[in-house]
Amino acid sequence: MGPKKQEKKTKKQLAEEAKQKALEEQKIKEEQERKKKEEEDKIRAEQEKKRKELEEKLAAEEAKRLIEEASEHAMWDQDYSKYLEDFKKSAAIMAEKAKILETSTLPDPKNIKDLNAYLSLWEEEKEHTLEQCVANCQRAEFISKKIVALLAEAKGDEEEEKKKWCIEYLDKIRSLSRTKINQITLLMLENVEKFLLRTKEEKALIESKKATEKKDQDPNYKDDKLHKAITPDITVGMYFNRSNKFIKPVPVDFEEVRGHIDFPRSLMPAQSIPEVLIRSVWTSFNFLSNEVFTPLLPIGGVVVFDLYKFGDLFPKVIKDWTVRPIFDMEKTLASIPYPDQKSLLSGQAVQALQVTLKVPEYVYIQDTDPLKVALWDSTSKGWTTEGIDEVKFDKVRRHLEYKTIKLAPMTYAIDRCIDYPYKSWYLRCVAQNKAILDIVTKRTTFVFEITPGEVRLIEKMDPELAHILNKPYPPGLILEHLLASGVNLTPRNEDAALCGINVKQKGAEERAILELATSVNGFAFRSFSRNKTLPDDKIAIGLRLNMEYDREFFEKDEREWKTFVWFANKCGCTKLKEADPESTAELQDKCANHLWLRIAIKDLYKPEAIDMCAHITQIAFFETLRKFLRMLRILSFCQHHFFSLLNLQCCLLYTSDAADERSSVDLGGRRIIKKK
Question: How far is the C-alpha of 33 from the C-alpha of 13, rounded, in Å?
Answer without folding.
Answer: 30
